């Protein structure tokens, strides 16, 4: 209620003030129209007396001031025209000083002063000096600020600057500088004093009001920056020290923050660069509550943009040792502001790093130095969990990746992993993903085991459980995504030198072994394929080469591969392990290493026997085994017989009859390999096909017993297609008569009342018959071969 009353009262007082101004303005206009100087001065003084109020907030006072300001502009036009009032400007300057109250007197004095300077009857510097001194007579913060703001406004175009029409003899632009500096200093004192204008409980309201008036003070600095005579030397020796003296001595956090920001924004970048030491020297002397990190960040941002604007300015940065000065200043500020939160310090280091990457991208030692300072600040602290801090640390660590587009450069920074160590587990993973994404996006190849070691140390949050976390707590989808990223990363680790590549593989293996069983199914396959890629490159080498250090050889790598795949037994993941053993067997076959290939097959069969229990998985596994064995050409007769015997044996032992049938007829390919030197054993092919036919028959009868009707004839048609394949390949045991008999059998089965009609089977059979007809009509040797078959 009291607040609303206060607002209402203020509105009433403002209305009264405006009414007073309008009332006196009416008589003022009448006096001006009749060229009556005495009346004009009387009513202008009465009008300006309304500005003596202390009841209004700065915001409302400004409204009142603007009304008075408009009238003063009109009065100034009158004062300029001596013909209208018949009084010389010197006499007028004396005359207005007889006004009764000091505030109206000084407003009138400033107005006449402006006319006095334009008349050039007295040096501009003398009039300005007189005015700036006289304005000391008003010490009320709000009234004084607006009065001095009026003085700054009217004198702005009348400063004795270089090439100005008001320039006097000698270095008078220094008088202009002196005038603006003096006015600035007085205005700043008044502005700072505003905070003591009310009770402490209204501190927040007072700060808000002060904030509204800050531009009145800041405009002085803008005027200073526009004075032509203020070159680098004047700025360095006079302007900056005087302004900073005011900033430091006012000991007010609002003023210090705003004015430091003003200095950075209004003066040229080139000046900042050449006066860095002076500007930065003031930072540790500011109040501890000042948001110095934002001030310094803006300074570094401006300097970064300046450096980016032209390559020609870069030597200046080296010449003034900008990085060293900024780095030292940040250190001192952090030291001086004991209560500065961690997030503030890290933000400063992010800005410094951004500056360094812009200005000195080639100086990795500078980048590492910034990261080192960050480590020092974080040392002794618990893991960072505050999201604002971790966000800044991620920004700090991401900056070098974004700049260099090359993780290899970041890997040379010794302090990079140390900063990462301070992140909590979740953020550590986020950062690790950022690193991997950077590598993938830029197609970066990490080519030495040392760099791989550092890289895997950086992304350890994804590779193993960091203390306090467990894989069981993770979201399944997130976990899969993370591990797939690690798997993709492994394909980016490469070196043309086999010796170094083997070291890389060993390094990766060491790290992923520490990650626990849950991660192995994701990380083992890419590692196995990296090793196999190396084996294929080494196919030309076989056996060990004499020398001090045993080089990378296929045998050595296969031994390592055996260990790697064995590790999957702890998961357990037998189907995956079996696939990988078969891949290795195939690679050993290409390297002509029969014992190694046999060993891998043995391991695959052992897994099949002991670990693969699911019937579907068994079907897939046996087909993989048959397919791989069929492509092997390294085995001697004895070893091949042993393995094919095993494969056919397991095929016949599958749980479901249709699965048995298909696996057994697939085994027929083991006895007829179409290569130049391949096995061609028609007898055993026929044996397999006949056996599969018996199983298909048994399957048909079983369906008949259990369901009262036979199943479709699909299996018979599939076997028929196998017969046709081997018939075309020229197996003497597969005759046209046998194919004829099988066709008749299928037709009989299809016409049987107990057989269930199946469109897919029927279409399959029709398509097969169509193929036979096509071959018969084709003519030539193949046509003759097919001719005896009657459809």
TrEMBL record:
Record-level GO BP terms: protein transport
Primary site of residence: cytoplasm
Entry GO CC: endosome membrane; Golgi apparatus
Top-level lineage group: Eukaryota
One Pfam assignment: Vps35
UniProt cross-references to InterPro entries, sorted A to Z: ARM-type_fold, Vps35, Vps35_C
Membrane-crossing residue ranges in chain numbering: none
PANTHER family: VACUOLAR PROTEIN SORTING-ASSOCIATED PROTEIN 35B, VACUOLAR SORTING PROTEIN 35
Family assignment from sequence similarity: Belongs to the VPS35 family.
Protein name listed in UniProt: Vacuolar protein sorting-associated protein 35
Protein's organism: Forsythia ovata
